[in-house]
């Protein structure tokens, strides 16, 4: 393998795509190695890829290699198909069985059939007979049956053979031929409600669905397609791809198929110019892969001498970027409507890429999964297992009461399997939730909460029966404790940080309660709402059921992500009369879901007003100049993003705002929210980066306002860095969700060096500690619990709003429970959820409290609202040494309100 710069990353991506498991595959673009300055770099790379798959002693993956076709040569239409299919059959790895291409063989027989004469009513029967005769040439079973049927008069049979044919011919010849015709119809046409690819193709050609395969195939015979080679390529290509996709689908009693773990790879030495035979073939291949959503084929072509503008392509700057594109496809799948080709420029140059040389030396061949048992042993094991299963089933039928016994519960009773296969519901500590290595940090916090619950129960167990001190009450934390399949962040977003805030707040509250005897100690249960709250409504129903049987449940805290499923869950809890206190949820619509919800964080409308004021007053674009125009990035399927973006546009003004609408392919709720923000849709993150780069290049005083999620921000910066030659500097003002990216080991400006990042923050306890005793208490509690964790992530959490907001939310609910207990006159049995809701609805005594995130005006709905209207908010600037406060507005503590912002020695601007 030649060591061109970046070839190790490209080959690594190639290897991963070739051996990618079938269930996680998506379609893959055709890789076109383009040599702008000539040379044979592409051919040498193709040769290296071929040697990787051939291995040292045996073939490691099925592949076909198509050598260069001389200029001016135009081989027959079937030449390439025969070359490819024969090589794929010959390169099937040991233990994977024989490759059967039934649809291709059938259509090959059709397109090579001689011109059919005679009555039109009989021509389809003649075509079927011709195809069956071709079928007998490669099917030993069909040939043996035909031989058993004997010869008839037309084939020169003797009198004895004629008599035998008269008796046995219907059974061994005509019946198998009729069954072959029925099987061909089923394979090519399918059922009326679920037609196969051929039926859909014919319908596009003729306008009506076919009723018989051989009747519809009459216009494909050789005489009809002599002057239409592209049409022949099209139908044969779809036949081959459908066969290859079908060949990768496992069957229950076929261990050979289960070993087909690799894609089929097509390697072309020379693609040639845009009208060459190989280029025509590749165009049909790309279109067919897109039409059929074929996931089993991966093609690489070298020597692309001219790029045809007939089909859009993805353009990479080199092998390294191409490898990154392919790795992204391997991890996240190919987005719909993505171009079907990836153009990679390669050129001759000094082969001094030492990293590539070292990597290729360590991994000289493709590494494929190695099954432990051979196909025969696996078949014997499967038969043995089936026999054992039948024996066990018989025993279960004979043993009485077997079916009435309780079934094993993989989620340990109180939880249940959710949308993504994780256990969701309500659990004690970490019981029943994620157990993977990526979820250990979350489990550690849940186990800490579980230990604190046990400590409270242990303290209360020793009290006498008539003790006047209050007993414990239960609070449920409601959040996404497990992530989706293959999610990089096991809980996505700020859930881990919120859990830490809940844990330290519970410890602080219980220490005060057990010491004084005048406060209510708290037990905390964890409710897993599933990845991005996908299972939130069902989990809310489970909380309602639990609350009906457990009167100690006093309320719920959480709801840290503003999503439509979150709203639905809140309505369920509100109808059941369960008090709710929000943590880091910010959408204005949260307060509209019921009168039992109280918000701790500032709303999106308030955050958007501050962002608009900061954008208008600060000089944040390149060269320290004011912002002239804004590119606003929003996801209209996400309630949080749509709420923040719509409020910002209304505050800043639509005349200076260009709205770009981008929705990731894995969006949990792909349809836009009702009343979604209008704007220009952008299909991919690459297109989003290109649009913004173009806007900044045209007007350097353009700033980006990012209202989408943090998980997409990192991908966006990676794309921007690839095209940074056109926009080397970029100023971004982001919503509070982007702080989730700041808690990772790799910070956003590490992805793009020209980034100037400003972001909204709900928490800045280190800044408030000197002025707010509550902020100082929060920091002391956090340091006692996690001071031993010296990681950059833990340090970032100490300054992040998610932890402090969770602290304030639990303190809010705990204060309501304490005041409700005092109204009972010390009668613990009278303290219930209805009394807690009454206190929260009327408002906490004293009008609220000073929290770790600023003053919490908990004056209640009866006193004017269920949120803090002038909640403290900041805009911070991210730097390598830590965040720098650029704007701070709102109430810090009682009597300390920030009403202006601006530089220390410059002109002050009023807070909105």
Automatic annotation (TrEMBL):
Protein name, entry field: ABC transporter substrate-binding protein
Source organism of the structure: Streptomyces marianii
InterPro entries: Peripla_BP_I
